[in-house]
């Protein structure tokens, strides 16, 4: 084509000297290249039936899709005012909303300056008609002229705010703006309450309730309470204080006068109380986070007597375990009431699953619900339901794609059960991305983490466990030193060195000594993949030319667990173009392999362990030994050592390869047949045209529906959601 175009141009201009001119030849070559590329792109998109490059942006997992006021991560304490204003506190919120103010189902404001410069939230707060008092922490930040803790120390404080959410300093206040009351250097504040002009503070470090003046913030007095926690004030201005369990000593709720005298009444028929409040009738509400997962209601006029409960007994594990219904609670962290007796409850799930804040009428009718379920996570689609069912690491969503952006998802199930499966790896690690597979028609979840150090496997059995994902297996890598791969007391019976595969052969979800298969290999993992047949693939960042591990599925055992073993593992050669292999996706139906990593031609600058690398390459006829790429494409990567540009994750679906960058969260779309870049996706106005950084190695997951439409899920840790792009088929 190039030679024909040169001849036509020469005839058109009829100027022989131009054909000899270097500048002319360069310009013609440039024009030809652009034309060829344009024709190629047009052909590629037309072949796949996509006539436009339009796409739509949506999201899942957060009631609010954009802006600073969206549902925060993991509410750990709340206080409800008589008019139904809800003040909340979290240890950490990625976008800086550790402390929110909610009204009528919406977050209307946030307490300022709770994030950055060593600051974080906490697990207690209270308010009066003038101020909000927030438990928080202040860490050291190095040498500064401002008032900060010394190096390697932290303050655990009560910080005072006005009702608009601005810090309210006071004489003798600490911190850069003089609004902090230092309570301890050892342990966080665990309870706050107000009686008149006095602020009561639970100080676990000293086993005391300390009393301060609400205006001057001067300490007035104190009294001893072992392991004090949350505090509620009854109509007689006496205190009910949770005494947290300690070792073999069970939790209790103790009764004290405002002067610090312990009264005879106490409540001991509880397991794990996490929050308490007094309703307008003077009854005590206790958030029981043990297996009951209910609000317990006590008449406290005389000897405390349990007179009722709120919520289904056993919470989300009642009826169909894991199924989300209005009155099924899980992971309780907050309870409160307003002057009309409406009840406000927050469920956090377990191991910080996410915020689920609800308001009920006194009779139990749900009034509103605010959800912030996503933190360092991504979604994947169940292929059997054509993307109607989506899963994240702990949640299941049901989609209605006919609805507007952000309204398509419905929270259907919470898939973790800590009471039946206390050794569930999700309770002991921090997985962050989901791969959904149907193996022999049965659904499975595979989870990995930010460092690619493990692969967790979950099965489902609706007859015995409803919607719960049951621990089924786990792969871990090799520790470079001769010590257990995972530190601490979990999992039990872990091999003392090397790497291992665990399979729950007896189906009880426990890690038992006869359930481990062990080996030892190169310690640096590049990536994991589970193909459509259920085979597991792993890349190693090794230099020996044998950096691919293939674990063929050996079947499904009698308990429903997929079987893998080191004896059946295959070592496969790394294509010569790569010197640091990072990601792998293999498609057995077409015998096509996609690999990414740093190459000889585009090497790494430094050792940015979490990125995809510098190139993606496609290999056909992989199982037949072909290691020559059909195509290879250079992707955004660091060439300066400053790590401003890099690609975090990749995913292949249908006719396209999708890759997302770390800091700009832009999705590059490449034609899977040619490797040509055909599109770039950016967050649309539906999500405020913004996204945080991509923090995880599987921060993008693509799925093609039966109608040809592509769903592209991208982690959005900053504002606590998963972004979903929809591309027409």
At a glance:
The chain is 6% helix and 39% strand. It is mainly β and 729 residues long. A six-stranded antiparallel beta sheet has the order 31-32-33-34-35-36, with no helix packed on it.
List keywords for this structure.
disordered N terminus, mainly beta, 5-stranded antiparallel sheet, 4 helices, 6-stranded antiparallel sheet, globular, 729 residues
Walk me through this protein's architecture.
There is one protein chain. The chain is mostly beta strands and 729 residues long. Helices cover 6% and strands 39% of the residues. The strands form twelve sheets. The chain has a six-stranded antiparallel β-sheet with strand order 31-32-33-34-35-36, with no helix packed on it. Strands 6, 7, 8, 9 and 10 form a five-stranded antiparallel β-sheet that branches. It has a four-stranded antiparallel β-sheet with strand order 1-51-50-49, with no helix packed on it. Strand 32 and strand 33 form a beta hairpin. It is globular, with a radius of gyration of 29 Å. It starts with a helix and ends with a strand.
